[in-house]
């Protein structure tokens, strides 16, 4: 029987039954049935699988689930709770994270495959830099290890507009 560990995912402690070396992405999608993080490359080279672990972006395709034991994992589905908690609430109340709302308002996605990872990266950026310049937004998506966030549909200009919109909302 596989070792069991506990990881907090989107505000809930979850007992994980997958083997400890199982990629976090597989646990999230296959065991916990969270479809936000996507499988793109499987090699930490695209960003589609990005999630937050203790507030920092990680590529879940190369992160063993054992590395998240006792930590807080946030997927796209958990962004509303993260935003609510930043305001001192304990439940999301059904309100989207400003990043998610900005993505809707700017109609960012085309096929949508990469966008969960794009929103995760935006949430991390705005948590640490509430007023990023365009250059800083581009830098966050292109120069942060382990690789740039890739969008085959080329939605990059809309992403920059959405991050700026979310920034304004979060400061108001
Ligand atoms: S699927 Fe993880 S970075 Fe591409
Ligand atoms: S919206 Fe299609 S890959 Fe980004």
Task: Write a structural description.
The protein has 172 residues and is of the alpha+beta class. It has 2 domains: 5-77, Beta-grasp domain (Ubiquitin-like (UB roll), Roll); 79-171, DNA polymerase, domain 1 (Orthogonal Bundle). The chain has helices spanning 24-31, 79-86, 98-105, 115-128, 134-142, 156-171, and strands spanning 5-9, 12-16, 50-53, 56-59, 72-74. The mean pLDDT is 96. The protein binds FE2/S2 (inorganic) cluster (FES) (2 copies).
Fraction of residues in H or I helices:
25-40%
> Regions with pLDDT < 50 over 5+ consecutive residues?
none
The H-and-E topology, N to C, reads as: EEHEEEHHHHH
Q: What is the number of helical segments per DSSP (H or I, 4+ residues)?
A: 6
Computed structural class: alpha+beta
- Biggest sheet descriptor: 5 strands, mixed
Proportion of residues in β-strands: 5-15%
Structural domains: how many: 2
How many strands? 5
Question: From the coordinates shown, what is the CATH architecture of the largest domain?
Answer: Orthogonal Bundle
From the 3D structure, determine the CATH topology of the largest domain.
DNA polymerase, domain 1
Q: Which cofactor or ligand species appear?
A: FE2/S2 (inorganic) cluster
In CATH's first tier, which class of the largest domain applies? Answer: Mainly Alpha
Rg from alpha-carbon coordinates: 15 Å
Strand order, largest beta sheet: 2-1-5-3-4
CATH superfamily of the largest domain: [2Fe-2S]-binding domain
Backbone shape: globular
> What is the distance, rounded to the nearest whole angstrom, between the alpha carbons of the first and last residues?
51 Å
For the residues shown, what is the average pLDDT?
A: 96
């Amino acid at each position: 029987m596989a070792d069991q560990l506990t990881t907090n995912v989107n505000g809930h402690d979850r007992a994980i039954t997958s083997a400890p070396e199982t990629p976090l992405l597989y646990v999230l999608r296959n065991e916990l049935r969270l479809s936000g993080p996507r499988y793109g490359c499987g090699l930490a080279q695209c960003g589609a699988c990005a999630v937050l672990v203790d507030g920092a972006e990680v590529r879940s395709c190369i992160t063993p689930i054992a590395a998240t034991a006792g930590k807080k994992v946030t997927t796209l589905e958990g962004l509303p709770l993260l935003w609510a908690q930043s305001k001192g609430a304990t439940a999301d109340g059904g309100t989207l994270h400003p990043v998610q709302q900005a993505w809707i308002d700017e109609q960012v996605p085309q096929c949508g495959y990469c966008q969960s990872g794009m929103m995760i990266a935006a949430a991390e950026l705005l948590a640490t830099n509430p007023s990023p310049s365009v250059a800083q937004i581009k830098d966050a998506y292109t120069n942060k290890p382990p690789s740039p966030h890739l969008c085959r549909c080329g939605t990059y200009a809309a992403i920059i507009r959405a991050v700026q919109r979310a920034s304004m909302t979060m400061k108001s």
